[in-house]
Every structure is written in structure tokens, then in C-alpha cells.
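Notebook, student rotation project (T.W.).
Task set for the rotation: take a protein with a known small-molecule partner, predict the structure of the complex, and write up what can be learned from the model alone. Partner molecule chosen: magnesium ion. Sequence and SMILES entered below by T.W., checked by me.
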Amino acid sequence: ATRAGKIIRDVMSRGELGIVEKGKNDLQTEADRSAQRCIMASLSRQYPTVAIIGEEGPSNCEVPSDWVVTDCDQTILSLQCPSEYLQVTDKDIAVWVDPLDGTSEYTQGLLEHVTVLVGIAVKGRAVGGVIHQPYYNHSAGTGESIGRTFWGLVGLGVGGFTPQDPPPGRLIITTTRSHSNELVQKALDVFNPDEVLRVGGAGHKVLLLMEGKAHAYVFASKGCKKWDTCAPEAVLTALGGKLTDIHGNPYEYDKDVQHTNARGVLATARGISHASFVSKIPQEIRDAFA
Ligand SMILES: Nc1ncnc2c1ncn2[C@@H]1O[C@H](COP(=O)(O)O)[C@@H](O)[C@H]1OP(=O)(O)O
Ligand SMILES: [Mg+2]
Ligand SMILES: [Mg+2]
Ligand SMILES: [Mg+2]
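Predicted structure of the complex:
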């Protein structure tokens, strides 16, 4: 994810984004394509029999040798693997890769919204993930290292950041800035929030929950896919938060599931009652995502 983040910055510095329209309000750039090839090549070389699904489709062509990462994070490897994973085999695992989350914002220069997402599902549950933010600190003076990586494994914990709880006594909700519609807005209005943070990317919004900037992420839309939510859900769950559909039911992340998160996204920070958010979603919106 870190190497992919460097590729994303390099594409932007060169200034040739190579934008392709995949669908309505749905762009792909050279950064999405190259970052995906980097991650797919690196993972499939180390784990040739694990199912890896990337947003930008299969990409088996050769990649530059310096895109292939072969080393592992020794600090994380030195930690004790939770006993629940000791018997896991390749067949139990699906890896969901979003090489660049927040493409719309990337093309508009809102670079802090961009993340690289690699999520690991075991037996259909999102349990492990990394969220790399390639432009963290990019506007700071020299001397600050650029980019950071959040990680989490359910049963082990999280790393790469300092978790914070959102402020009590107010309600801050984060949601889409580039994929809104009437239903998305209706679902926000029922909560009567003190503040709405409209930012790009599923990864970035979950970072806001984990750093105490928002209490909940509400997105009554079918726009997100499994690669958008697998890594964020895993890291958030490892921290004690929750990400589900708008009914409060978990998504399945087996390799054969449908890619679309057809029942919307509702996530809450650690220490926030997820059920109380679910209970406020009105019937009209529940019915639209039945
Ligand atoms: N209607 C949509 N079409 C395509 N992708 C979407 C749509 N809605 C959401 N997404 C994906 O989910 C992410 C979170 O949504 P939003 O930023 O609107 O809150 C987007 O950055 C985008 O991922 P990506 O940028 O990887 O294509
Ligand atoms: Mg996309
Ligand atoms: Mg995405
Ligand atoms: Mg993407």
C-alpha cells in the first residue's frame, strides 16, 4: 500500500492523469491502474493461491520490477498472531484491493481524501486491513515524512495512528461529497446533526471516525463496493467501532459475493451505540435498501 501510495504521488507530479470514465460519476486514472498493478503483482507473488480482488479488474501484465514489494513489516510480524487465525488456510481468505479510494477527489486536487485500501476477509468476515494515506503531511515543511498507514487485525488491535474518541455532546456525521442524492440527504436529515463533514473516500471517512473527528458515517446509497469497505471495516472493528449496511447487518466478503454494497453503509466510532443509529433510519429508506 505504501509503494502504491508513492506511485499515486508520482502520477500526480507528472500531471498526466489519463482519466477514463468507467460510468456515471465514476472515474479511473493512471494512478488507479498503476497502483492496482503494483499491489496485485506484489500480493500474488507472495500469495499465489489466495483470492485477490481489485477494483480495477484483473491485471496480469508485467509490472516494473521496482513495483513488486517482497519484504514484510517486521514489527507487525513480531506480534503474536491471535489463536483464531492459526488454522486459517488460503481457501478461507479473500483480499479486497481498492488501489485508490477517493478518485473523484484525487482528480480535483483534494489529495488528503485519497487512501489505498487492502482488506483481508477470513471466512467472509472483514478482519484485517491497511488504510494508507499517501498525502498525509504533504503540505507540511520538509523534514516531515509524507504518508501514513493505519492497520488493524480483529483480535490483535490497531496501529499506525493514535485513536481518539469523538466529542461528547454534539453529533458530527461524515458522508459523501461527490456521490450525494435525495435519499443520501434524507438519511442524514433524520439525525439532525450539529455538523456534516462531506469528504471523499470510504477509507478517509473511516479515518475520521477513528481519529475522533466524526461520530458516524452515513451513506444511504448503493455506490460503495466490497473493496471500499473491507479494509476500513476491519480496522474500525479492530478498534471497537462498527461498519454495517443501513439495517445494521454485516456485509459478507467471500470471494464470490456480489461486489456492490447494495444496502448502503452505516459506520460508527468506538464507544458510539451503533444500534441507536440503525433505529433512527426511517422505514422509507429501509425499504429502498431492502
Ligand atoms: N456512485 C458511485 N460510483 C462509483 N464509485 C462510487 C460511487 N459511490 C461511491 N463510490 C466509491 O466509494 C467511495 C466512497 O464514496 P464517496 O467518496 O462518494 O463517499 C468513492 O470514493 C468511490 O470509490 P473510488 O474512489 O475508489 O472509485
Ligand atoms: Mg473507482
Ligand atoms: Mg473506493
Ligand atoms: Mg478506487
